[in-house]
Backbone:
């Protein structure tokens, strides 16, 4: 995997974790169940150990009531933060 792909996976993982944590008390297994995926797979997505599919992104966006475009913008912004192109407090957040 090249560096840009790795950064994208980490950025996606951070966004997924942040979205899940925005729902008070939401657990990985609960969200995975709602999205009809295994907890193990969802955990891998949140830890940048699996590549998210477009269908999974669409299901996640639908669950959170957001557009795929908004999700992709969040990932792009997080990528800029992770690569140092943009400064923000989330850049040091751990997954």
Residues:
């Amino acid at each position: 995997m090249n560096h840009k792909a790795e950064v994208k996976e980490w950025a996606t993982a951070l966004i997924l974790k942040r979205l899940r944590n925005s729902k008070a008390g939401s657990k990985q297994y609960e969200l995975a169940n709602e999205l009809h995926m295994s907890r193990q797979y969802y955990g891998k997505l949140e830890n940048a150990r699996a590549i998210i599919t477009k269908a999974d992104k669409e299901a996640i966006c639908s669950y959170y009531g957001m557009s795929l475009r908004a999700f992709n913008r969040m990932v792009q912004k997080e990528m800029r933060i992770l690569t140092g192109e943009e400064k923000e407090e989330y850049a040091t957040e751990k997954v």
Q: What stands out?
A: The chain has a mean pLDDT of 88.
